[in-house]
Write a structure and sequence with these properties.
The complex is a heterodimer of chains A (about 80) and B (about 675). Chain A has about 80 residues and is an all-alpha fold. Chain A has a single domain, classed as F1F0 ATP synthase subunit C (F1FO ATP Synthase). In chain A, about 90% of the residues lie in helices and about 0% in strands. Chain A has three helices and no strands. The longest helix of chain A has about 50 residues. Chain B is an alpha+beta fold and about 675 residues long. Chain B folds into four domains: about 90 residues, 2-Layer Sandwich (Alpha-Beta Plaits); about 90 residues, Alpha-Beta Plaits; about 200 residues, no CATH class; about 120 residues, no CATH class. Helices cover about 55% and strands about 10% of the residues of chain B. Chain B has 16 helices and 18 strands. In chain B, strands 1, 2, 3, 9, 10 and 11 form a six-stranded antiparallel β-sheet that branches. In chain B, strands 6-7-5-8 form a four-stranded antiparallel β-sheet, with helices on one face. A two-stranded parallel ribbon of chain B has the order 4-18. Chain B is extended. Classes of the chains: A mainly alpha (about 80), B alpha+beta (about 675).
């Protein structure tokens, strides 16, 4: 009886660990996604404005716009590492 | 390769009567990038002034304006016209240009002015119909509303009901949102009626100055409009016929006149005295002999041509010098910035690295094939060099993603018959046994690519600084770049000395100096190589700080730039995941269960499954192109170019015209 209880408690603990991992992975991608989005919002609108004024700036503003994208890539990497490694 | 075309500075001096033949020779050769003469501030040019246009400049520009306005009428754009058939000879055309243009001009002018008259009359008829329409439901001749001495006629719309007392007569036509009222009022009652109407939200409308029954008038105007429209249609057909007939001629004329204007106005860019002129400019070094010969031939050996030394402050125009397979990548270089003359031109590297990155990210035979087909299909619809280059870049990228798809054993997210894959598996579920996704290996592979890419960038940075900088700063800048490399590799050595990882060298075996128990990740303590790594970092930081102390703040970017290459795996895996989810929903959940016991409703569900499959993969293709393309180019722009590349070179723009419709 006692052994069964212990076994099921261990099972529950293991299962909730998996769940926590999934939560963590989801949060990592979701929050970094929001972060990258917020960061790119301002840069992107300024970039569109600048490009409208001077087309030659396109390359430069494209770079500036995608710089915060790294945040969400880190999030994705963290999620992958949490889930698979 | 890796450097722009070598340029030489050329000086041409001749007497003014050679101006026309020499300009013609330069124009034909399309090699001479003219350096505009600026009156002020040029040493050794005292007493020179800007030249005057050659004879015939203003006639030619007048003609050019005419041609362009005609092209405008017909919406002809030279870029959209295929230079089909034999090219016309420049001189033949030049002789007939004026006469022919005038002929086409009068013909077109007559038609277009008739057309605008008709359009104006249609507008007028429509306005009249608009005015008459409210009266249409009152069967009274319109002439009866006018011409009274003792009565006034009031017409307009009211929003509320209104009753007009005797002796005034009124008629109300009910409408949807407001009613139309016509009232005939004795002059003495007019003020009363108007104030009553004002209370009902009255808006006056004019009484049409027409005679006849309203319905008949409306029908009459409608008929006139139809007639005018038919005539416009026939004019348009005529214009279209003229367009068809003369489009080739017009674009050829534009070319002829443009070349004449450009040649005639070239002296405005030269320095002249009363008797002579001096032209300075740039020519690719390999072509100097040829162009000198041509100038001599054109002037009958009566010109002085010499190569001048290039000064340190000269802005040398830049022309790419790439092997043909790397040329398409110039498209991406132009988006970023054209290289400076003294700089390393990374186009060749970009042309190799971009497709590899794209393939690493997309890496799927199915998507690669779709993209390849798309490239060939779009070729018909896009014109111009840029579009051609872009499609070629994407073509190379899709071939690369097919190649990596074979390595990854992926086809639209399914596994191919060869299993396990030749490379590290990206499949999230291993359907045929074997390994699931090999995330650590994939990530470390991406990191390795990053380390090597960044190292290459820094080495190129050292070369660029060595070439471009002068004096004391040169050594400092070169060492600073080396410093960045030291720090990066130092960090790597320290990590390798503490932690054993797949695909990475294992330096943990070196003799331990200080054993520290209880460190995270089973790091035993400090060993020899760790100290070596520390020294490298220290030296690196010193080198960086010597060049610019502020740069030290940027040190963490080493880590973030290297880790940034993880996107090669991360973006790719997300694409694999979407593909697998689409496959699972469409085939696993919708199609397969229905196939087992087939019913009529089952057929509908199967159809839905097919739709999900197609839509899902279409979405993933679009995401794949965007993700694969943007992330690959970003790794080059942000992580690679920022290490060594400035750009901002002047475009080499030789004097001359690339003839498409005519020949000399």
């Amino acid at each position: 009886m006692a052994a069964e209880v212990v076994a099921s408690t261990v099972e529950i603990a293991a299962a909730s660990q998996v769940g926590m991992k999934a939560l963590g992975a989801g949060l990592a991608v979701g929050l970094t996604g929001i972060g990258a989005g917020v960061a790119e919002m301002g840069i992107g609108s300024a970039a569109v404005g600048a490009t409208a004024e001077n087309k030659d700036l396109f390359g430069l503003v494209l770079i500036l716009t995608v710089i915060p994208e790294t945040i969400v890539i880190f999030g994705l990497v963290v999620a992958l590492v949490l889930w698979f490694v | 390769m890796l450097a722009p075309e070598k340029m030489s500075r050329l000086l041409i001096v001749a007497s003014k009567d050679q101006l026309a033949p020499i300009t013609g020779a330069l124009y034909r050769s399309r090699l001479f990038h003219i350096e505009d003469f600026v009156v002020e501030g040029r040493e050794g040019y005292d007493g020179f002034s800007i030249g005057k246009p050659l004879a015939g400049a203003s006639e030619a520009s007048g003609g050019l304006i005419k041609v362009r306005s005609l092209e405008n009428v017909f919406a002809i754009r030279p870029d959209d016209i295929d230079p089909a058939g034999a090219r016309k000879r420049h001189d033949d055309l030049a002789r007939v240009v004026d006469r022919e243009l005038a002929k086409i001009g009068t013909e077109v002018e007559g038609l277009t002015s008739r057309r605008s008259k008709l359009e104006a009359s249609i507008k007028e008829y429509e306005q009249r119909i608009h005015e008459i329409t409210p009266f249409a439901d009152i069967p009274v001749d319109l002439s009866l509303y006018r011409g009274y001495e003792r009565f006034a006629v009031i017409a307009g719309f009211v929003t509320k009901n209104v009753a007009i007392r005797e002796p005034a007569e009124s008629r109300i036509v009910k409408g949807k949102s407001s009613n139309f009222i016509v009232a005939v009022v004795p002059n003495e009652d007019r003020a009363d009626v108007e104030s009553e109407l004002a209370g009902a939200g009255f808006v006056a409308s004019p009484i049409p100055a027409e005679s006849g029954m309203p319905h008949a008038l409306i029908d009459d105007y409608q008929a006139k409009i139809t007639q005018a429209k038919a005539e416009i249609a026939s004019i348009e057909m005529n214009l279209d016929a003229i367009r068809q007939k003369h489009a080739d001629f017009l674009v050829a004329c534009e070319e002829v006149l443009k070349s004449e204007v450009e040649q005639a106005e070239a002296p405005l860019r030269f320095a002249t005295t009363d008797q002579t002129f001096v032209a300075e400019g740039w020519v690719p070094s390999s072509r100097i002999a040829g162009i000198t010969d041509e100038i001599m031939k054109a002037s009958g050996n009566r010109a002085y041509v010499a190569e001048l030394p290039i000064g340190p402050h000269d802005v040398v125009p830049v022309e790419y010098n790439n092997p043909s397979f790397a040329k398409p990548s110039q498209f991406f270089m132009n988006i970023y910035a054209r290289p400076k003359y003294t700089e390393i031109d990374p186009t060749l590297m970009l042309s190799i690295i971009f497709p590899i990155f794209f393939g690493l990210i997309l890496g799927d035979i199915g998507y690669g094939l779709i993209l390849l087909a798309l490239c060939f299909a779009l070729r018909k619809y896009f014109r111009g060099e840029d579009a051609e280059y872009f499609l070629k870049v994407i073509r190379n990228a899709s071939i690369s993603s097919i190649f990596f798809g074979v390595l990854n054993s992926e086809f639209l997210g399914f596994a191919m018959p060869w299993w396990p894959p030749y490379s590290f598996s990206r499949h999230l579920i291993s359907e045929h046994g074997g390994h699931g996704p090999m995330i650590p290996e994939l990530l470390l592979l991406a990191i390795w690519i990053g380390i090597l890419h960044i190292t290459l960038g820094r080495v190129l940075g050292m070369v660029n600084h060595y070439r471009q900088d002068h004096g004391e700063h040169r050594m400092k800048a070169v060492l600073a770049n080396a410093g960045w490399l030291f720090v990066m590799w130092g960090v790597l050595v320290i990590i390798w000395s503490g932690i054993v990882m797949p695909l990475m060298p294992d330096l943990t075996g070196f003799p331990m100096l200080v054993a520290i128990p209880g460190l995270p990740m089973d790091i035993p303590g400090i060993n020899v190589t760790m100290v070596l790594g520390g020294i490298m970092i220290l030296a690196g930081v010193i080198f960086i700080a010597r060049d610019s102390i502020l740069e030290v703040v940027e040190l963490p970017s080493i880590i973030s730039h290297v880790l940034s290459y993880a996107r090669l795996v991360a973006v790719g895996l997300s694409s694999v995941a979407i593909a697998m989810v689409v496959n699972f929903i469409s085939i696993g959940m919708l199609i397969e269960p229905q196939l087992e016991n087939f019913t009529l409703i089952g057929a509908v569900v199967i159809l839905a499954g097919v739709v999900v499959f197609i839509l899902g993969h279409a979405l993933n293709t679009a995401l794949g192109i965007l993700g694969g393309g943007l992330h690959s180019i970003r790794l080059n722009y942000v992580e690679f170019f920022t290490k060594f590349y400035k750009g901002g070179g002047l475009k080499y723009n030789p004097f001359g015209l690339k003839r498409r419709f005519t020949e000399d």
